[in-house]
Each structure stands twice: as structure tokens, then as C-alpha cells.
Here is the input.
Amino acid sequence: MEAIFVYTTFPDWESARKVVRELLERKLIVCANMREHEAMYWWEGKIEEGKEIGVLLKTEVSRWKALRDALRELHPYEVPLIARVDLDKLNREYSEWMARVLFG
Here is the structure.
């Protein structure tokens, strides 16, 4: 199993939960960790500040393209961050659980 993390951000808890639930129902991810944080970024020529919900999605590399496409479809941002992080090592027990959820 080649596990990956996919990181994205949302403007609020409601949109984050809605999209994560849809991804879980489609079996594109096995888990998501969500955390609120302060964000500063450039948008339309000026620096913006606000709160965002950072979401770390856990899945298998074979789900990457479908997950990326689903995030593009469901995401409320005009320009969402969709970043893939390949995992070098993952403990066997977690890897087996992921396989059962995604492929079982």
C-alpha cells in the first residue's frame, strides 16, 4: 500500500465537514484531520488575513487522481490548494486498516 496525505484548506468548518463527509462516502479517503488556524495570503493584489480550516486527508496513491478531481468539483475556493505528500514509511497495522477501508 502506497499511502499519501493530501492537504487542503477551507474557509469554514461547515464546508470542510461537508466535503470531507462526501470524500469518505465516496471511499476516496480513510480519514481526515481538521484544525482551525490563522491564515495570511495574497488575494487580488492585497494581503488578506483570516481563519481557515486546514485538512489533512489520508488515502492510497491509487485514489489520488479521483480525490484531486473530487476536491476540484466540491471545493468552495476559486483557487484551492490541493497538495499531495507521498509517505515513505507507514506502520503495517495502519496500512492494513487503510486497505480494508478502501478496498475491502
About this structure: The chain is about 35% helix and 40% strand. The mean pLDDT is 96. Residues 13-25 form the longest helix (13 residues).
